């Protein structure tokens, strides 16, 4: 866990000592300090959004992800824009600190299982977001994007939605074109899955 609130770190450590399936291996006040030590590739790092060293949150996330960690960003700030930025940088979740410890623990477990978790209020804000770099998708375009990006073939996605494969392809091409115009080129299924994660479309 990376946080500059020592009281919070001590409290989390004491509380997790009573939890059988989650171990707090290390705490640090900066990302530099954490990365100077032993960071395992499968660790979940709970990262405070705004640290006292004024380090860039996006850069912090990128560095931890590059080290192989799963990153859960926590913050007192319920900022949809900050949430989108750190998720695009690779964070697996963004949780506001007004949640209780049980919710934090559930989120850590979900992130450890390679899930994506975001505060409900942020997910709602993402759905309502109309930033220039986030294209507005029709219900049909969004449905085919979610189905196809989940791993289905285009034919299977079309069948699930009750449309012809050619129609599904047309919707998917429109999705790709909208992302291209928004300055976020999207070519492969992996790219599409990244856009779903970045824009919080699953929530």
TrEMBL record:
<dbReference type="InterPro" id="IPR039420">
    <property type="entry name" value="WalR-like"/>
</dbReference>
<dbReference type="GO" id="GO:0006355">
    <property type="term" value="P:regulation of DNA-templated transcription"/>
</dbReference>
<feature type="modified residue" description="4-aspartylphosphate">
    <location>
        <position position="48"/>
    </location>
</feature>
<dbReference type="InterPro" id="IPR001789">
    <property type="entry name" value="Sig_transdc_resp-reg_receiver"/>
</dbReference>
<keyword id="KW-0597">Phosphoprotein</keyword>
<keyword id="KW-0238">DNA-binding</keyword>
<feature type="domain" description="Response regulatory">
    <location>
        <begin position="1"/>
        <end position="112"/>
    </location>
</feature>
<dbReference type="GO" id="GO:0000160">
    <property type="term" value="P:phosphorelay signal transduction system"/>
</dbReference>
<dbReference type="InterPro" id="IPR011006">
    <property type="entry name" value="CheY-like_superfamily"/>
</dbReference>
<dbReference type="Pfam" id="PF00072">
    <property type="entry name" value="Response_reg"/>
</dbReference>
<dbReference type="InterPro" id="IPR000792">
    <property type="entry name" value="Tscrpt_reg_LuxR_C"/>
</dbReference>
<dbReference type="GO" id="GO:0003677">
    <property type="term" value="F:DNA binding"/>
</dbReference>
<dbReference type="Pfam" id="PF00196">
    <property type="entry name" value="GerE"/>
</dbReference>
<protein>
    <submittedName>
        <fullName>DNA-binding response regulator</fullName>
    </submittedName>
</protein>
<dbReference type="InterPro" id="IPR036388">
    <property type="entry name" value="WH-like_DNA-bd_sf"/>
</dbReference>
<dbReference type="InterPro" id="IPR016032">
    <property type="entry name" value="Sig_transdc_resp-reg_C-effctor"/>
</dbReference>
């Amino acid at each position: 866990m990376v946080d500059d609130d020592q009281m919070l770190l001590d409290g989390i450590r004491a509380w997790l000592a009573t939890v059988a399936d989650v171990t707090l291996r290390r705490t640090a006040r900066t990302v530099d300090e954490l990365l100077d030590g032993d960071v395992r590739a499968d660790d979940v790092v709970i990262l405070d959004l705004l640290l006292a060293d004024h380090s860039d949150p996006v850069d912090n996330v990128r560095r931890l992800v590059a080290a192989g960690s799963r990153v859960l960003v926590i913050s007192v700030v319920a900022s949809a824009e900050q949430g989108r930025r750190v998720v695009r940088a690779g964070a697996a979740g963004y949780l506001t600190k007004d949640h209780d410890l049980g919710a934090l623990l559930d989120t850590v477990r979900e992130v450890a299982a390679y899930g994506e978790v975001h505060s409900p209020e942020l997910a709602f804000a993402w759905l309502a977001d109309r930033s220039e770099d986030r294209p507005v998708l029709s219900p049909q375009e969004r449905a085919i994007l979610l189905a196809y990006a989940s791993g289905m073939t285009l034919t299977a996605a079309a069948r699930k939605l009750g449309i012809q494969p050619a129609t599904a392809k047309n919707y998917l091409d429109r999705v790709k074109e909208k992302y291209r115009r928004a300055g976020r080129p999207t070519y492969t299924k992996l790219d599409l899955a990244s856009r779903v994660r970045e824009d919080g479309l699953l929530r």
